[in-house]
Design a protein that fits this description.
Layout (H helix, E strand, L loop, with lengths): L11 H12 L7 H14 L3 E5 L2 H11 L7 E4 L5 H9 L3 E4 L11 H4 L7 E5 L10 H10 L3 E5 L7 E2 L10 E5 L12 E5 L2 H10 L8 H7 L17 H7 L6 H19 L6 E2 L6 E2 L5 E4 L2 H13 L15 H4 L10 H9 E4 L7 H18 L1
Helix pairs in contact: 1-9, 2-9, 3-4, 3-7, 10-14
The chain binds pyridoxal-5'-phosphate.
The site of pyridoxal-5'-phosphate has 14 residues, from α3 and α4.
């Protein structure tokens, strides 16, 4: 048996939608994108969505929209993909790392206040693996300290906590449609916000800052346009949006399938004492983007190799960001910033997780993990 880390589920519907989009007159940002934005906003129960080329681009644009003074500080987590910190640096701001909760791996909200200085302008939480940060507490903290809050929701389209989803309690939330994400078009992203002013700014910033996009000029006929602001070229195009749209009505069913797979993993893994799971808090609906396990750091890399030899794909999500010296040179942190993040980052590995994974495949994976520990003990 060969079990890759991830298998996408794109098929006839996406191929049909893409082939219609290819035959249409407008390939760049147009009706496919606008329809996708409306449909995704409706799924999220958010007022506005602005589609971009990646989650990284979305995070950067959200920060750019506030025109913060250069080198202002943004508090974030060290247990995330490099993209979170890079988006802050790309906006010419300084990431400041606050350690994570030892059980969930999410930013430890109780510690954030230790990192707030007169230069802090924003907080960027990450809903790691698909479990939402406590946004009720975090948004309260942001409000009290007059800080902007931008959620990195790359892992968390479907997740909620206390019935709040991403973008409900913050200034904006950014999503990823990268190749292995729960909704994908290869590369893509989207920003959700309840602020019309923010949505308008983001729409301008994603298209260089021009007063009229190609779509408007096509619709209204040519007239000279202006450059209103110095923006970026991050707009999603109709081709990518066409692939995303057929996936939206299936999100809830696919989450059920992911939940079934996660519960089956949990049931079998209980019998392997060397394996620990990441805690999931009460009142959380987990998006089940990833299925991470923790094993002793002495064995983690050996287990990855063993599983690889058994034709089972795994990935580390993520090593703590203190492993990347180039990032650290530009960032703010103290010795405590990485204690829990490093420990989890040295112990964690993600097992294959996708809606169509079969119980026989999960049996095979858990069997291989069990055999590994029998061999090394
Ligand atoms: C937590 C997190 N943030 C941001 C990103 C960046 O997403 P994108 O590749 O769409 O820029 C990822 C992608 O893997 C991610 O996992």
């Amino acid at each position: 048996m060969k079990i890759p880390f991830y298998k996408h589920q794109l098929g006839a519907s996406e191929i049909g939608a893409f082939s219609s989009a290819v035959k249409a007159e407008i390939l760049t940002t147009g009706n496919q994108v606008f329809d996708f934005e409306a449909e995704f906003a409706s799924f999220l129960n958010t007022r506005y969505c602005v589609a971009v080329q990646s989650c990284t681009a979305g995070l950067q644009l959200c920060l750019e929209a506030y025109e913060f003074e250069a080198d202002s500080e943004v508090i974030t987590t060290p247990l995330t993909y490099i993209a979170t910190a890079l988006s802050i640096l790309q906006a010419r701001l300084k990431p400041v790392f606050c350690d994570v909760d030892p059980n969930t791996g999410n930013i430890d909200i109780r510690k954030i206040k230790n990192y707030i200085t007169s230069r802090t302008v924003a907080i960027m939480p990450v809903h790691l693996y698909g479990q939402m940060v406590d946004m009720v507490a975090l948004s309260q903290l942001a409000k009290e300290n007059n800080l902007v809050c931008i959620e990195d929701a790359a892992h968390c389209i479907e997740g909620t906590r206390e019935n709040y989803g991403p973008a409900s309690l913050s200034d904006a939330a950014c999503f990823s449609f990268y190749a292995t994400k729960n909704v994908t078009c290869g590369e893509g992203g989207c920003i959700a916000t309840n602020s019309l002013e923010m949505a308008n700014k983001l729409r301008s910033l994603r298209s260089h800052g021009v007063s009229k996009m190609a779509f408007d000029r096509h619709k209204e006929g040519y007239s000279h346009w202006d450059l209103k602001t110095l923006g970026w070229k991050y707009n999603l195009d109709n081709l990518h949006a066409s692939i995303l749209r057929p996936q939206l009505p299936l999100i809830k069913n696919k989450l059920k399938q992911r939940e079934n797979a996660a519960h089956y993993y949990q049931k079998l893994l209980k019998d392997i004492q060397e394996v620990n799971l990441i805690a999931i808090d009460e009142n959380v609906i987990h998006a089940r983007h990833l299925f991470p396990i923790r094993v002793s750091s002495n064995y983690r890399d050996k287990l990855i190799k063993y599983l690889e030899k058994s034709n089972i794909g795994t990935v580390v999500n993520y090593r703590s960001l203190n492993n990347y010296s180039i990032l650290m040179k530009k960032s703010g942190y103290d010795a405590e910033s990485f204690k829990n993040a490093s420990e989890i980052g040295d112990e964690v590995l993600s097992l294959p997780m996708y809606p169509q994974i079969r119980n026989e495949e999960i049996d095979f994976i858990v069997n291989a993990i069990s055999n590994f520990f029998k061999e090394v003990n």
